[in-house]
Automatic annotation (TrEMBL):
BP GO annotations: fatty acid beta-oxidation
Family named by the database record: Belongs to the enoyl-CoA hydratase/isomerase family.
UniProtKB keywords: Lyase
Species assigned in the record: Candidatus Desulfaltia bathyphila
Name of the protein in its database record: Enoyl-CoA hydratase/isomerase family protein
Length: 260
């Protein structure tokens, strides 16, 4: 496996993962897939890392989806293996116990768009374009796109984008709620870091439980969702962090949370 297909750096509680195949628009092959899977599982249990940012190398692409040159060499069994692996990886990102921000620095198509959908927050550069384009190749989104897109932007708009396979530019992505915000490409990573830094000021256990309650509550009726929220809240009550938050408020200082 090429160890350079995924770059990783850590700073001030933030891990930045960079898909590093800029010569082919950061397309996902088996090597990158396994590297990202290994890193995500490592970060899941790594103390001190509070937020993860995923982006692409270069100025043209976040991720153009699957590496079609590699795909052309795969037999049917290998294609199924790829699809199962990428689907399970993106689900693990969506359910990760830490917030994940997609820094969409250019083209995000097919599996690249699905990767961004698996993230909690999406911030795009002005030159970004996004689309679930699989139907133009006579296939369908297979890494969660048919499920996550309608939950995010609504069923009708999701069907339009998937059925036509068309790309949309950053401004339209913002208008339909596909991304949280847009900015210049030069400012993109800084904007993502600012968002991550704000999250790092909050209680780690609270964030983990809030994400859990949102993710699982959305999949059920509101009464069950409220019960999930209550159970998640109960987890935060006996923590040292909760007492620290109250003490810091009383003493008019910034809290120092330790995830305990």
């Amino acid at each position: 496996m090429n160890d350079n297909v995924l770059l990783a750096e850590e700073e001030d509680g933030i891990a930045i993962l960079t898909l590093n195949r800029p010569d082919i628009m950061n397309a996902i092959n088996f090597s990158l897939l396994h590297a990202l899977k290994e890193k995500i599982e490592n970060l899941r249990v790594k103390q001190g890392i509070r937020v993860i940012i995923i982006t692409g190398a270069g100025e043209k692409a976040f991720c153009a989806g699957a590496d079609l040159k590699e795909r052309a060499l795969l037999d049917d069994r290998q294609v199924k293996e790829f699809i199962f692996t990428i689907r399970d990886l993106f689900t693990s990102i969506a359910l990760l116990n830490k917030p994940v921000i997609a820094a969409i620095n250019g083209v995000a198509l097919g599996g690249g768009a699905e990767l961004s959908l698996a993230c909690d927050i999406r911030i795009a550069s002005m030159n970004a374009s996004m689309g679930l384009t699989e139907t133009r190749l006579a296939i369908i989104p297979g890494a969660g796109g048919t499920q996550r897109l309608p939950r995010l932007i609504g069923c009708g708009k999701a069907k339009e984008l998937i059925f036509t396979g068309r790309r949309i530019e950053a401004q339209e992505a913002l208008q339909i709620g596909l991304v949280n915000s847009i900015c210049s490409q030069d400012d993109l990573l800084d904007e993502c870091k600012k968002m991550a830094a704000m999250i790092c000021e909050t209680g780690p256990i609270a964030i983990e439980q809030a994400k859990y309650a949102i993710n699982y509550g959305l999949e059920t009726d509101i009464h069950t969702g409220l019960a999930i929220e209550s159970n998640a809240y109960w987890v935060t009550i006996p923590t040292e962090d909760r007492l620290e938050g109250i003490a810091a408020f009383r003493e008019k200082r910034k809290p120092v949370y330790k995830g305990r």
